[in-house]
Amino acid sequence: MTHAPTRFPEGFLWGASTAAHQIEGNNVNSDWWRKEHSGTSHIQEPSLDAADSYHRWREDMDLLAELGFTDYRFSIEWARIEPAPGRFSHAELAHYRRMVDGAIERGLRPMVTLHHFTVPQWFENLGGFTADRAVELFTRYVEATAPVIAEGVDHVCTINEPNMIAVMAGAAKAGNTGFPPAGLPTPDEETTDAIIAVHHAAVKAVKAINPDINVGWTVANQVYQSLVGAEEVTAAYRHPREDVFIEAARGDDWIGVQSYTRTRIGLDGPLPAPADVERTLTSWEYYPAAVGYALRHTAAVVGDVPLIVTENGIATADDSRRLDYMKGALAEVEAGLRDGLDIRGYLHWSALDNYEWGSFKPTFGLISYDPVTFERTAKPSAEWLGGLGRTREFPSA
């Protein structure tokens, strides 16, 4: 059945997301920079210059604004702002404030992420989020970001995908460098408890800077789908990997929903995707419907908290498949809105092809760049998605 296009709600966030370490380049004081140069086998190549967005953020924002987007989610780098314990860089704080001002000048509403997977090396040396003073130290960092976020920033994300941080900590404690063929490693319980405490303290710190800022965090939703008879197995598997982090957001102003694919669960646990399914460059099943399941599940768990799709996309060298994926995903967002879900925005992952934690090969970006000259080129998918931001209309389905 075909129906008339649906208008996005007034104020709907329409944009793309990035993470500082993945696009800035030369983030030398971070834990990930050290990992990249440690000879770890699962890291295929270092980030080095990445997309040089530390210097070229104006070009990135110019393109996003010209394409029609109204919002840009980017992270600020703790390792740059506090390269040594208690020593804050006024120059770096000013740099990120210029980015906030630059976004606003271009008509882009900035959503600022305070932590996107990377920490200063000194913080990792102390034990990271399970260190004795982790809450205090992260809160001190948040308080120091006041010059960046105090004015003109309506949305702040404290921590990106805390469930994946706990999962990676669990894998590290088990001595694993990779993930199993299906599903995720068991999250580290100590890290889970610690990062939830850090988040709640960070929310209070942001509100103390400006009570009008909308604060939340983003959760990686794996879209666990139960085979018949495996409902209890699925619920037990999902809770420590996902639901406990969604539950922690019940008092927040919003929650970020991030989804890419699905995970089927049988009586014995996660099942690999069938051999004949289409896969992306990350080897994930091509599954545009994932975001619809993720939104509905998150809403069921979190209760009366607004939802924002803060990441959704695919890694592919075939931009026509990216375009088809987006159309399928947006049909799910549209259906959720029609069914009354409180969805406040859609931000694609990612604005740029970037460093995907060990390799540049998985290309998620709406915009490509030359690795030598760093010249940016908008892909057809960027033109299409940005155009929807101008019209504020869902395509008919």
TrEMBL record:
Single annotated GO MF: beta-glucosidase activity
Gene3D superfamilies documented for this protein: Glycosidases (3.20.20.80)
InterPro entries with a match to the protein in the record: GH, Glyco_hydro_1
GO cellular component: cytosol
GO terms of biological process kind: carbohydrate catabolic process
Keywords tagged on the record: Glycosidase, Hydrolase
Hydrolase among keywords: yes
Family matches, as PANTHER family: GALACTOLIPID GALACTOSYLTRANSFERASE SFR2, CHLOROPLASTIC, GLYCOSYL HYDROLASE
Family indicated by similarity: Belongs to the glycosyl hydrolase 1 family.
Protein's name according to its UniProt entry: Beta-glucosidase
Taxon lineage: Bacteria, Bacillati, Actinomycetota, Actinomycetes, Kitasatosporales
